[in-house]
Amino acid sequence: MDDQGLNDAAIMLMSLGEEEAAEVFKHFSPKEVQKLGETIARMRTVSREKVDEVINKFSNAAAAQSLLVSDTGNYVRAVLKRALGEDKAGLLIDRILQGGDVSGIESLKWMDPLSVAELLRNEHPQIVAAILVHLDAEQASAILMQLTDRAGAMMAPEAAKKPDFAAHPVCSGPYKFDSRVSQDRIVLTRFDNYWNKDAYHFDKIIYLPIPDASVRLANLRAGDLDLTEGIAASDVKTVEADSKLALAKVTGLGYQGITFNINNGKVPANDPFKDARVREAFSQAIDRDALNQVVFEGLYSPANQAFSTVSPYHVNLPVPPRDVDKAKALLKAAGVTAPLTVNLLVPNNPTSQQVGQVLQAMVAEAGFNLNLQMTEFATLLDRQQSGDYQLSFSGWSGRPDPDGSIYGFINSKGTLNDGRYSNAQVDEWLTQARQSTDQAARQPLYDKVVKQLQTDMPIAYLYFEPRIFGLNKSVQGFKPYPDGIVRLAGLTLAK
User: Fold this and answer.
1) Which of 230, 331, 397, 414 shows its CA 20 to 30 Å from the CA of 221?
2) Per-residue pLDDT tens digits for 337-382
3) Calpha distance 102→108 (Å, rounded)
């Protein structure tokens, strides 16, 4: 049902009264009830003409009311309780009106997978399993996908309550935590009670954080590392030429882009980047293909959206070519006098600095005087979150489910929406998309979002990052994954 159909149905149900509407609700599916309930909750006044248009046979009853329901919140609560009973309705009421109480496994059938996963993420695995067997296979599988994502890992609740949990985590998996030395290493040891322990062949795993790509490569070539992620594009030929090493790469799920601060923190009322035309002009001044060739030797993929080319939700929308004349015209239309001085936060690593310098030269031709503010990465994230920035060069590692790569960054209430972009229509499309597991139903919604963002431009997407691994040829059975996670099952070291 489209938006117009939902509005018409809501008006009709509101005209019927609680008892009659409750009888109608009994014949709807959970998703239909949720959509209609949310639509009714958003309504306040409805014109008499609209009521006549939708349902002529109820025009006399509607004519006596200037407002169909004076308290739509109470109306939704009463109708859903009559139709579904106290237990089933409790959860749905809570989701629609932010109130109520929830009990019973049955009520979970009315929730979208992400919300169920959020409720279950701190529960014991046996409890999770006991709940999932009572749900239909489609919903259960979607919930498991959320729980197995890196952002939804299950943890021991009692351990998580301890103040030193970050230094002494207790989770589940083939390896258990041994020790951590800040900025130096993390050591894991084999967990012999793991259900599939025979697939894991190492007694100890040592993770070494090495920020500099050249240092990582030097350690790999010296034999001090068996496997490393993040081989720089400029080092790919070196790895391929080394007889002791092998290269493994795959296009990743993540992206890098420019986040514009639209309304976060103390953004001046006259800041030019509040105008979408200025943001689009900045994007139009960038040659993404040239950026890929100059900085990344053609190994990266130019981007204009959050969904990588390896994602089934990637929208087939060509990356627009650089258009300096269009950029200048957009600035002029926005009333901006060039040159416009702009401050860009850039992580203080060599690759990001090079990207910043290339961008600096490109946008200058369109009338932007770009100042690069080299910033330690953690500080950059803090400043971005607090709104202490104008533009920021940052990205996301990506998630298998498209919701995890876009909702938090674009939705008005998204926790990662550091630019405070807001578009009610986009919010609605994103909400509808996360409430379904059917790709055929979700894809058109994400198509609309991606196309709308080409105009609104809250983020100027630049490129999709490949996952490039270097490994000693003694490492057998390694397979790179787009999410960048190293999976150790079946991995061995040749003698």
Assistant:
1) 397
2) 989 999 999 998 888 999 999 999 999 999 999 999 999 988 999 9
3) 9
Q: Are 300 and 466 in contact (CB under 8 A)?
A: yes
Give the pLDDT confidence score for residue 38 in this predicted structure.
72
Helical axes 137-148 vs 113-120, angle rounded to 10°: 60
Express each pLDDT in 147-192 by its tens digit.
766 555 666 777 777 887 777 777 778 999 999 888 889 999 999 9
Helix (H) / strand (E) containing 96: helix 72-97
Distance CA 371, CA 387 (A): 17
Look up tokens 């009264």; give the residue. Answer: 17
Question: Residue 203 carries which DSSP code?
Answer: S
DSSP state of 450: H
Show the domains of the chain with their CATH numbers: 3-107 (no CATH), 112-164 (no CATH), 175-247+471-493 (3.40.190.10), 252-466 (3.10.105.10)
d(Cα 99, Cα 23) in Å, to the nearest integer? 23
How far is the C-alpha of 317 from the C-alpha of 303, rounded, in Å?
10
**Helix, coil or strand: residue 394:** strand
When computed from its CA atoms, the radius of gyration of the chain, rounded to whole angstroms, is 26
CA-closest candidate to residue 40, choices 93, 91, 89, 88: 93
Cβ-contact 294, 358 below 8 angstroms:
yes
Cα–Cα dist 356/465, whole Å: 16
Q: For tokens 């204009």, what's the residue?
A: 304
* Helices (runs of H) and strands (runs of E) counted in the chain: 20, 12
**Exposure class string for 308-338: b at 16+ Cβ within 10 A, else e:** bebbebbbeeeeeebbbebbbebbeebebee
How far apart CA 296 and CA 372 sit, in angstroms, is 20
pLDDT of residue 6: 73
